[in-house]
Amino acid sequence: MFGDTKLAILGSGTPNPDPDRMGSGYAVITDQTVYLIDFGPGIIRNAAQLSQNWGGKIPQMNVANFEHAFLTHLHSDHTMGIADLLLTPWVMGRSEPLNLYGPKGLDQLAANTLKANKIDIDYRINGTQPANKTGYKFIFKELNEGIVFENEELKVEAFKVPHGDFEDAYGFRFTTADKVIVFSGDTGKSLKIAELAKNADILVHEVYSLEGFKKKTKDWQKYHSEHHTSTIEVGEIASLAKPKKLVLSHILFWGSTPKDIMEEVRSTFTGDIIIAEDGMIIE
């Protein structure tokens, strides 16, 4: 009954304001439903571009359909699109509350976002614009390690990753009828990811340029080595996991080109590598 799962890259960027790469955001697309992973700035607009409403080819990507979102961690480049995620689908007709799955504190972020937009919300509900009274709301479910969501379409497993001193930084493993897709989230080198992504169809992993890293000052080198994963390390993880496709995203280029990044990863992994770009659909 279910199959043909797709992955959409809605935001492949980092905190650096690259105009071609929105903040972190992805969508696992089943026959019927879209499941969002992270909601950095700009991802709702990129999602709309893939929908039939705005000339795309994926009817599920109508933003009014967005009812499930999973957050890896509370860094701003992964969360700043929350106002857009809560309000724009509602304005476009969503009537069900948004289901938010994330670390402790996401509920406060969402509640304060609605509080900050109270004037707008009240005007839409009480003014002449047709608007329902439920579609801007949310239902929060705090993450723990293990299965955090399951229905007839898919199963979602959350697992903690080492992201500096962040206590609540997670990756996700999505299992559908035809695919296993693993998201590293923001992480240092993690053998847990290699284990959970074993023979996965798609592994989406963050990465930084090793050559660029060598040019950083010592304080930044300490930060990045504790919070992120080098090209060489990503290749080592992928060599252990052997995914069918390794998708490199949240890339810290630091002057390197996509070709440079690819070559560095290929020094430790010889499988299929894709450099993520916003709007990309991976099947």
Condensed summary:
With 283 residues, this protein is of the alpha/beta class. The protein contains ten helices and 14 strands.
What would you note in describing this structure?
This protein has one domain (6-282): Ribonuclease Z/Hydroxyacylglutathione hydrolase-like (Metallo-beta-lactamase, Chain A, 4-Layer Sandwich), CATH 3.60.15.10. 29% of the residues lie in helices and 25% in strands. The chain contains 10 helices and 14 strands. Strand 7 (146-150) and strand 8 form a beta hairpin. Helix 9 (231-241) crosses helix 10 (258-266).
Task: Detail the topology: elements first, then pairings.
Elements: E1 6-11, E2 25-29, E3 34-37, H1 43-50, E4 68-70, H2 76-79, H3 82-91, E5 98-102, H4 106-116, H5 118-126, E6 138-142, E7 146-150, E8 154-160, E9 170-176, E10 180-183, H6 191-196, E11 202-208, H7 210-214, H8 218-227, H9 231-241, E12 245-252, H10 258-266, E13 273-275, E14 281-282
Parallel strand pairs: 3-4, 4-5, 5-6, 10-11, 11-12, 12-13
Antiparallel strand pairs: 1-2, 1-14, 2-3, 7-8, 8-9, 9-10
Helix pairs in contact: 9-10
Descriptive keywords:
283 residues, alpha/beta, Metallo-beta-lactamase, Chain A, 14 strands, 25% strand
Uncertain runs: none
The CATH architecture is 4-Layer Sandwich
Count of discrete domains? 1
Under CATH, the homologous superfamily reads: Ribonuclease Z/Hydroxyacylglutathione hydrolase-like
Helix content: 25-40%
Counted by DSSP, the helix tally is 10
How many angstroms does the end-to-end distance come to? 18 Å
Q: Characterize the main sheet.
A: 7 strands, mixed
Which fold name corresponds to the CATH topology? Answer: Metallo-beta-lactamase, Chain A
Instruction: Spell out the helices and strands N to C.
Output: EEEHEHHEHHEEEEEHEHHHEHEE
Overall CATH class: Alpha Beta
Shape: globular
Rounded to the nearest angstrom, the radius of gyration is: 19 Å
Structural class call reads: alpha/beta
Bin the strand percentage.
Answer: 25-35%
> Assembly state here?
single chain
Average pLDDT, to the nearest integer?
96
Extended strand count: 14
- The order of strands across the largest sheet is 6-5-4-3-2-1-14
